[in-house]
Task: structure prediction
Amino acid sequence: MGKDGLQLVLLKCQRCQALFIPPKYNCSQCMGTDFASVVSEWRGKLKTYTTIRVPPLGLRPSSL
Result:
């Protein structure tokens, strides 16, 4: 558990041990479909990120 009491739960592929942020239905490394939930150690390397410029329908302000 992190210092502030929060947890980051990841999915771990049981075939190749790759880690993913849920939801995930098949492993992009080995195409496995068997995952286990694991709690992050709060250390790692950020490889990519996304900036959402158009919100999904359920998250749009009511004025749009």
